[in-house]
Amino acid sequence: MKNTIKILLLAGALFASVGCNEEEFLNEVPKDFYSPQNSYITEANFNAALTDLYARVRAIQSVNGGADFYSEVLGTDLAFNARLDNARIGDYNSSIITQGTIPRYHWLSWYKIISNANTIIGRLPLSQVSEARQKVIGAEAKLFRAWSYRQLVHLFGGVPLILDEATTPKSDYSRASKEAVLNQILADATEAATNLPNVATAVDGRLNKAVANHLLAETYIVVKDYDKAIAAATEVIQNSGLSLMTARFGSLRNQPGDVFYDLFRVGNQNRKAGNLEAIWVIQYELDIIGGVLTSAGSSMNQQERTIAPAVFSIVDPDGKPSMNKNLSASTLNSGGRGVSFVQPTDYWTYEIWGLNPTADNRIVTSTDIRTSQYNIVRDFKYNNPASPNFFGKSLIDFPANNWKAQRWRWYPYPSKITTPGQHPAGVLDDPALQTLKSIAGATFRDMYMIRLPETYFLRAEAYLLKGDAAKAAEDLNVVRNRAKATPVTPGEVTLDYILDERARELIFEEDRRVTLQRMGKLVERVRKYNPLNKANIRDHHALFPIPFSEIEANKDAKLEQNPGY
Amino acid sequence: MKQVALHQPYWYLCIVIWLWAGTTTAQTISGKITDETGQALPGVNILEKGTSNGTSTGIDGTYNLAVSSNNAVLLVSFIGYLTQEITVGNQTSINFQLVPDEALLNEVVVVGYGTQKKKDLTGSIASANLAAFKEAPNVSILQSLKGSLPGLTISQTNRPGQEASINIRGTSTLNGNTAPLIIVDGIIFSGRLSDINPADVANVDVLKDPSSKAVYGSQAANGVVLVTTKTGRLAQKPTITYSTNYAISSPTVDARLLNREEFLEKVRNIEYRNAYTQASGYTEQNPAWTFANSDFLPPNIAGANTTNDFDWFGSLTQNSLIQNHSLGLSGGSDKTNYFLSAGYTNEKGYIKNDDYKRYTVRINLDNAITKWLTIGVNTSGAFTDFSGDAPSVDNIVTTSPLVTPTDANGDWVINPIGDFNVNPFLNSLADNYEVQSRLVGNFYTILKVPSIPGLSYRVNFGNNLKYFKTYSSTPYGAGRTGEAFKNDATQYEQTLDNILNYVQSFGKHNINVTAVYGYNTADFNRTVARGTGFSDLNLSYNNLALAEIQKIDSEAWDESLLYQVGSLAYNYDSRYLFKATVRRDGFSGFSQNNKTGIFPSVGVGWVVSEEKFFNLPAVDFFKIRGSYGENGNKVARYSSLARVLAEESSKYVFGDGGSTSIGRSVSTLANTNLRWERTEGYNIGVDFAFFKNRIDGNVEYYYSNTNDLLWSQVLPQTSGFANVLTNIGELNNTGIEFLLHAIPVKSKDFNWDVTVNFSRNKNKIVRLLGEDLNQDGKEDDLIASGLFIGRPIGTIYNYEVDGLWGLEDGRLTGFDPGSYKVVDQDGDGKISPDKDRVILGQREPDYTFGIQSTLSYKSFTFRFFINSFQGGKDGYLAANHLNGYNNTKGNASNSNSFNFAQYWSPNNPNAKYSNPWVGTPVPGARNYFQRNFTRLQDASLSYNLNDALLEKLNIQSMKFFVSAKNPFTLTQWEGWDPETGQGVSSFQPFPVMKSYSLGLELSF
Fold it and tell me: Which of B206, B586, B854, B890 could, after both became Cys, cross-link B562 (CB 3.0–4.6 A)?
């Protein structure tokens, strides 16, 4: 009996030790992530949510390969797949398809920004943020939303218009009219133009009033309200403290070059660096976390790698590597560490400068500094001391066998995609020789999303469509004068001329595909200027297809496919 | 005793000598021990009670034992017999006749929170025959279970130390957890079963049917694997067992990378439009074309002009070596029994540096402190070491035979083919430390209530602590600026079970009642520090503050599970059997509205052969049983919550010279109604034994239905979200299994024993969203998720491929010669995903079977095991496709591939595989093939030393063996291995290994 009592006491004690409050025991509190309920309260919370949007736009437009495989230029009138195969939009019929990765990448990425912007906009009124700051933060989020719809509407046509945060699963989207989407862009951008700070007072890299007005100018052109377009562009041009750079400036101003060359040197893009024509600059910061630009293997803007020619792959007529130590170098001659994926078309390399592709164009006589020896590299000199027969000699005079067989190994390229002499130490193989490791290939500077010349081009377009060719020519000549190019006469100005001028000024800056699709010029100009895609582009490629995955998952409503797919 | 020690030079036996040395000899007893029929019994334990002094009987059943005094009491024990005690007094010769223990003769199985006699079971529980695989060089217990139990599928492995996956009776979930619950010595085990020394395992029982599983309720839907480790036995003299084996392995397939000539031919094939003449139909070489005209980079062009033929795969692979050592000590006195063991395994991988080392220790102790109180402990430690970075296999494949790893000065070439691909040797030069340690301490107390016989109360307190450490540094990382990191994680799990048990017989009525109340918690923490940009790495990963760029990362989670179980087993005369259980579970990971669930079960059985009217003399045993039960499936923690993440990719720096801004965004949607996935089902089985137990076995039929399937619903990403975890639909599994065991020959010298098992499972989706949006009168499939009503989960819905396009064929737009000829099902002249995809078959096999056989002749034993998977008409399908070329001509030209696949070229127009670098407008099109195979998985021959010799050496038993693993496989599948599903792809080329081993087992 004594034992029984002992046992019962012991058992009771053990049993009691697990007695607990079940509800509390099973309550789940995440330890290392936030929930929407506790993450959109303070101004710092909302700033973090906005920061995410900047990072996402950067990822789409440059880190992830220029909107996936450089589809913003590849397969347009400006560039083609240098390797001439079907990949990388070599063939529209195997790339721009309903199950293709490129249309899907655009759709998913921009809609994610819209979703995140909607969360900010929707939760702002419930937050602790002051009303004055709510206006600014809301305007910034709405401008991101407007920008995303701008991309989507020009790439896909009328798309589902979503303005509220999704808190429950939805699969009943249907396409809005193109007009409805454009009107939403106008509404959001107008609010942003009212509430955002001027570019001069905004923090470098952040959206500002000028971005909103620039977007308004472009969108008013699409809805054919040319007066409002001109007014919005004028607001940017005259009242925003912006002006074109006309004198040498920045990090390499004391070295040979010109002001157009200076625009693309390391450290020269932000307003604080003295650049007065930058409107929206995608930010990179060397070796700072979040700056992305690091030699340590994180994602970078790969323009240099994809666009610059793969000169290291050339073998001279003696069978020796063309480059010292078989490595590309941080020089204008080499073009950084390119691999030749995105080759400019002859239209850009020669025609718009009035050159003949079959002639020797190594010395260009044009006064237009945009085609100067600093800004377009039109020669390649062998650079391997171990091959004395060819060291310092031109590839054009002594063509390499494998270049003759495969012209992709070298072609003239615009120097804005590389940073000669300014590559960071981490990617240099030998600092004395300026040779580059094979991991190089990033363009180590901030990137323009919008630069003032484009606003001039938009106003020129609006004037032209309104019927005022003289005013249009005037705007084009502001940009041409800075470039020391011969002024254009009003009689010469057409939409195609404006596109030519955009090509001269903005290649590898503007989203060419969006510009062409916006103007309805893609198919026409690809057939005219793109040697690889002219044969395979078809009329329906004027718009991207709606991704099949979206149509399929959208089970509760029908997402109409664009015709032809 | 000392004599024995002299035979053993190993220092670690000192402890044994110490254990034995404490006795003084006063008196010597001898005698003979016989069984109930008067036959001599060899191997019987005789122990002087209260000491560790003991011996065992020889072949003729005789023994000699020196005891300390005439007060000594002898304990005589033998498995299957009742233990006897006798006081020595002044006797010098004591003979015993042992009495069989009926209870022990009835095989007992572990059923969860207790044990049950196998013949009283109402559910389907399979017990592994571990002895059949004892001679195989198995590093993991899973390898000994593979294929040997019906309904249990264990995946093939191809890396050292890799944990195989387990599947029991088909897949019963869409996106829920598919792994069974693993219980080791009564406590939930969340780690790798391969961390347990196979030599420590006594039994493995697998709960398969819903009623048997129901005792583990919410976690049991995928089955339960119960592992019991060895214990000592009461009144057994100490026995030391040492076993070892050495194995050498090589790949089951003879794969190598293309050599120089084949590689160059491949480049000509890529460039066939130039390298061959058009006039010949691209079959004759064009003399004007040279490799300088190819996509070759300069190092390959230079290499083409030499005679370089470097075998990168050969130089970075080796014959794999495995060695296992296990040392065990077991025994017991009248109150205490113990089992101690230590194990060491060293596996050198096929890929150099892909090594695995494991050290294990275990102490299992059980002590009856008083008549009513027993305490015990199962503790173990497993220390696994994966240190050393293997070369990157992707880089091995990428690198061409025309280039070499070092230059003329003997320095490493960083990028041998001249692009950004890094020399694969460099990876293996990293200073890498990767160790996982697991400490298990399970403590238990059993209180027997004296005034109520049969009533006991047991507390299990399980503790499981794991450390994961991965440290690495390499000067070649981060673009050769140097990279180092430390990744430290700990996980602690705790289990507390209160188990009240009452077992009693009232006449022929036998009852067993159990009540359980307990919890299980887990807590995890991780910290990662990473640095890049080092001036040097002389301090390796030990001073990360020297890095220019420093990143930190951390992770933490916890979860808890709470449960109550009640179970009642009743039988009348072991003839009419009944069992019912009910379990209530609560899990933190479910939504606020659905934290708990209740899982009931019931089973009945009828032992027909016990009936008086039953008199078929050939039938020894015949039982019919049936059961029904419900089980659940958990979700991953935090699944019902919306997440806002601050991801690395959301960081940004505004302005020049700015600092980091941290971005955040909502990454997943919440589901406030997320609840248990529930599986209910029944099982009908028959157990039988015929012809004096020469044939026995069982047949099972089962049906299970899963509702509220946990499913990651694919959303249009227009919403900003890719998917959401939700509950939908219904899925069922039906199947039939049998296990047949026969002893065709049983004689004094020759015995033959064979076991055949067979399983067939049919999986079918019954219901999904219950919507008919296209209004065709039938419920809609979820094509976007690949789910079709009335079809299995593994249904393959894709384009049909009808060979390859030739040069002359009139091809559809976008297709190049050598690409898949995709069937245009609707004949509209283009291939579109909505109109041209069809159901091609399924991934699941149609049936599987295994044959295990043991033949023994005198001291020789030969065993083999055959495992087979068959797909039937259109099952067990997988895509087999040549890739690894990164799809561009340039990459294809400069990088290598394996030599299995005959791909299309104008010279090889009838190839089986498409030309992997040509364009196709339907990149997802693949050719599917059946993976059917029959494999001789294990074969072994062992020799037991004869008793005369053993006696001379004064040891109990000694066995030598040789064995082979995976020596032969019959299959039509091409490429690496049918079972792993690796085809001719050059991606992840880890071969399944075959091995031959040599071993020794010794006990004394």
Answer: B586
